[in-house]
Structure formats: C-alpha cells, structure tokens
C-alpha cells in the first residue's frame, strides 16, 4: 500500500465543509470549502509541502470569504445581518380583525389570542382578561398588538 495523496484529504475536507454549510447558518463555511478544494487541486497538480498547502488553504479561503461573500449574498438575496429582511412566509394579521384572548394579557407581559385558526403572542396597552374579544391594531413579527373591543 502506498501513501495517500494529500489532495484526497483536502477534497474530503472541502466536501465535508460544503455539507456542514447546510447545517450551520451564516454562509461562511462555503468559502473555506472553496479554499480546501482549490488546495486539493493544487496538491494534486504540484508537489507542495504541508506548509505550502496550509498557506494556500488559508489564503484562498480568506480571499474567497472577503472578496466574494457580499457579492454572492446580494446575488442570492441572503440577509447580511439578522433581522435585516423580514420573513416573507410570516402570516400577516389584518388590522381591525377580531380575535379572542386565550391567555390573559397583563402589560408589559405578553398574553395569547386565538386568531385565524391559531394562537398568537399578543400585547396590549391595558389588561385584557381571558375570553374577551379584541381587535388587532398592528403586527410586529409574530407578536400582535391588540385592544379591547
């Protein structure tokens, strides 16, 4: 049995990082996977020492990360920071619609209301007891602001 080419190790590392990118949020590991694959290609084509392979991996990964991350995120419409873009799949509550309080709302704490077939977290400016009918004033994320009817 002969020695295993170091390019195979870099290839395995690159593929593992691509799969880890699917599980870890942040869109960072993708660029280290690119660096590992470029290092695998260079190690396969050229007889590089381990020190040169590591230097190439670090250089390629960081260059890809800082040079391409913003470009790819804009192209794929990925938010660059949490909360930058609201989730398009969030159901919107319609102002003026009615709901029933299922857990009392005691400001400043949240309560819960039943609206549109499901329960929602709710806040109000005044205390509202369980079973009372409320009108929706506004929605912020998954929390609905309500008032007594």
Find the structural class using helix and strand composition: alpha+beta
Overall body shape = rod-shaped
Write down the domain tally: 2
Low-confidence stretches: none
Q: What report would you give on this structure?
A:
With 149 residues, the chain is of the alpha+beta class. It has two domains: 6-76, no CATH class; 98-148, Nucleic acid-binding proteins (OB fold (Dihydrolipoamide Acetyltransferase, E2P)), CATH 2.40.50.140. 42% of the residues lie in helices and 21% in strands. The chain has a five-stranded mixed barrel. α1 runs antiparallel to α2 (29-45) and α2 (29-45) crosses α3 (50-76). It is rod-shaped. It starts with 5 loop residues before the first helix and ends with a strand. The relative contact order is 0.10. The mean pLDDT is 87.
Compact description:
The chain has 149 residues and is of the alpha+beta class. The chain contains three helices and five strands. The protein has two domains: 6-76, no CATH class; 98-148, OB fold (Dihydrolipoamide Acetyltransferase, E2P).
SSE layout:
Layout: H1 6-23, H2 29-45, H3 50-76, E1 98-103, E2 111-115, E3 118-124, E4 133-140, E5 143-148
Parallel strand pairs: 3-5
Antiparallel strand pairs: 1-2, 1-4, 2-3, 4-5
Helix pairs in contact: 1-2, 2-3
């Amino acid at each position: 049995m002969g020695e295993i080419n170091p390019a195979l190790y870099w290839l395995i590392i690159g593929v593992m990082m691509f799969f880890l990118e699917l599980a870890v949020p942040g869109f960072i590991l993708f660029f280290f996977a690119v660096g590992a694959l470029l290092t695998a290609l260079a190690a396969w084509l050229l007889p590089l020492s381990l020190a040169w392979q590591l230097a190439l991996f670090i250089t390629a990964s960081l260059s890809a990360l800082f040079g391409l991350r913003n470009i790819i995120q804009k192209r794929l419409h990925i938010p660059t920071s949490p909360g930058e873009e609201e989730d398009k799949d969030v159901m919107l509550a319609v102002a003026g619609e009615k709901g029933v309080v299922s857990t009392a709302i005691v400001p400043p704490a949240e309560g819960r209301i039943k609206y549109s077939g499901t329960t929602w977290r709710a806040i109000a400016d005044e205390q509202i007891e369980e079973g009372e009918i409320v009108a929706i004033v506004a929605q912020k994320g998954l929390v609905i602001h309500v008032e007594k009817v």
